[in-house]
Amino acid sequence: MPQPSVDINYVANLARLDLTAEEKVRFASQLGDILAYFEKLNAVDVTGVEPMAHAFPVFNVLEDDVEQPGFTPAEALLNAPAQRDNQFLVPKVVDDA
Amino acid sequence: MSDPLHSLTLAELSRHLAAKQVTSEEVTRAFVERTRAVEPKVGAFLHRDEEDALAQARASDQRRAAGKSLGPLDGIPIGIKDVISVKGQPLTAASKILKDYISPYDATVIERLNAGGAIRWGRLNLDEFAMGSSTENSAYQTTANPWDLERIPGGSSGGSAACVAAGEAPAALGSDTGGSIRQPASLCGIVGLKPTYGLVSRYGLAAFASSLDQIGPMTRTTEDAAMLLQAFAGHDHRDSTSLKQSVPDYVAAINAPAKKWKIGVPRDFFGNGLDPEVRASIDAAIKFYQGQGCEIIDIKLPHADLGLPVYYIIATAEASSNLARYDGIRYTHRSAQAADAVDIYFKSRAEGFGPEVKRRIILGTYVLSSGYYDAYYLRAQKVRTLIRRDFENAFQTVDAILTPTAPTAAFKRGEKSDDPLAMYLSDIYTISVNLAGLPGMSIPCGFTQNNLPIGLQLIGKPFAEAELLAMGRLFETAHDYHSRRAVL
Fold it and tell me: How many domains does chain B have?
């Protein structure tokens, strides 16, 4: 198990989440405590134990490929923070060629 | 009917409606007016639309007058936790990031309540994205415990629990990821049932941790919980984790003669943090079941005390992935300060999420990150298997397991809000049940000297909801804890 210390900038970047300087200090310290608490799990022998992702076996559920009622464009865009021409509007994401 | 309508149970209201002794409009108006009177003290609702509720009630009365009643829930107001989609109504998950969000569709549980004629009554407060145990993590307001307004109602379904305990609705929907139905039910003196994972559709529930979340009923009695669960349990093709399991008649089950169950008691697991008054109530409940001819069996759950670290790894990992959808692009708050498209993610999420949600996203991202995945997430999943095996072993010899629901009665506002680990400990008895996917129910089993409710938890085998409800019903028939009402 690695040492319970967190590179908070690295993790916040992965999470796409800006943190204030104060949040970084506070979360790093609290997460250190929580990770230290997680060390309890190191005492458990898990040799040969299968990991459990779900309480019951999960299978793909497939639908027949038939037309079904869905959202109208207006319903799909009901909560859009910005929209134009029946589409979600975002700033340009590619540079000019 | 000398008692005011707002103090009646769902089953009582249903019987009065069926006998045409009262109309749905009268019932709904009683809850609307009760809510107006006590809501300034309680603060359970994030949103409510009185006119909409009364219009639904009049439609119900017309159906009934025409002989077309849709069943036992027709015309009864049900409060809805603000993480469950109701078409045309707000859904904030008590987060600023969904401040202006309106649901464009109904959750499956809501579709089924609609098919039964139930009245959708308001949006109930919670810890932001159901992350918390006190409802103090709501971005909008705190909710008071109706039994002592200085104390928290529990969480995360604190609004749902307080609403029912205060008589603002006869019943409510909650959701439970690690105890979020059972712990607030316990702290507010009501019944709360977390169904077996996969019994109730999660379609239309704002996801926190998808392998743990379940929607369930929060009511005054086990009979009410049976009636409400009956209305929405069962397979749904829109939730790939929904199980094709037949749904028994829960109401018939609780009215059947009580059995002499074998009840397991994991005393080692009760631990040092258990409040003496809670312990005394649990001991009295154990004696009661023994007196009814039930066999009490000491059991061991050797890995149960690891439930908390396992839960906080798995639940935060799943949450960090689920909450990636709140990106400021399609249906959430978008920051006005963003420099470019990618910066929309960083700034919208920073502005939209509260401290506990940020803390859990960071933790979940960390345990999934390269180099740490095996040490934390994979190991937690393996220990989860061991926790489930403990229960499977116990259920070889017992029908159900009895524990406290929470280690203490309701604590004071602010008491634990700055100490995440102390707050997490209030879910110590409930968390393992979610990890194992089992049904669990909290029922009122006593009061402290300060008149605060105490709850006991019954844990069952997969799909043993009917049996848990029957066991709870047996306790109710000999005690009056469930019929006491908070004075407001």
Answer: 1
- Of B58, B76, B147, B173, the closest CA to residue B116 belongs to B76
* DSSP summary character for residue B305: G
Q: Which of B478, B486, B448, B469 is nearest to B222 (CA)?
A: B469
CA angle B100, B194, B197 (to 5 degrees): 90
Task: Give domain status of residue B462, yes or no.
Answer: no
Q: How far is CA A18 from CA A21, B65, B323, B334, in A?
A: 10, 58, 15, 14
Tell me whether residues B309 and A92 touch, CB distance under 8 A: no
Query: Is B94 within the bounds of a domain?
Result: yes
Is B20 in the active site? no
Domain annotation covers residue B126: yes
The torsion defined by the Cα of B42, B45, B51 and B54, in degrees rounded to 10, comes to -70
Instruction: Check if the beta carbon of residue B198 is closer than 8 Å to that of residue B245.
Output: yes
Domain boundaries of chain A, sorted by first residue: 1-44
Cα angle B360, B364, B369; round to 5: 145
Do residues A19 and A8 lie in contact, with contact meaning Cβ atoms separated by under 8 Å? yes
Q: Give the domain CATH number at B254.
A: 3.90.1300.10
**Distance between CA B51 and CA B58 in Å, rounded?**
11
List, in sequence order, the alpha helices (H) in B330-486.
Answer: 341-352, 355-368, 379-394, 420-424, 431-436, 465-478
Token code pair at residue B346: 């960083």
Integer Cα distance of B383 and B303 in angstroms: 8
- Searching chain A, which residue's CA lies closest to the CA of residue B211? A54
Residue type, B263: I
Q: Do B243 and A60 touch (CB under 8 A)?
A: no
Helix, strand, coil proportions of chain B in percent (round to 5)?
Answer: 45, 15, 40
Backbone angles phi, psi at B246, to 5 degrees: -70, 145
Assess if residue B96 is contained within a domain: yes
Query: What interface predicted TM-score (ipTM) does this complex get?
Result: 0.92
List chain B residues with CB under 8 Å of A51.
378, 381-382, 384-385
Average pLDDT of span B372-399: 96
- Mark whether B156 is an active-site residue: yes
Class of domain A1-44: mainly alpha
Task: Summarize pLDDT for B180-236 with one digit per residue, the tens.
Answer: 999 999 999 999 999 999 999 999 999 999 999 999 999 999 999 999 999 999 999
Query: Which member of B197, B330, B346 has the closest CB to residue A56?
Result: B197
Domain range for B193 is 5-259
pLDDT per residue over B133-168, tens digit each?
999 999 999 999 999 999 999 999 999 999 999 999
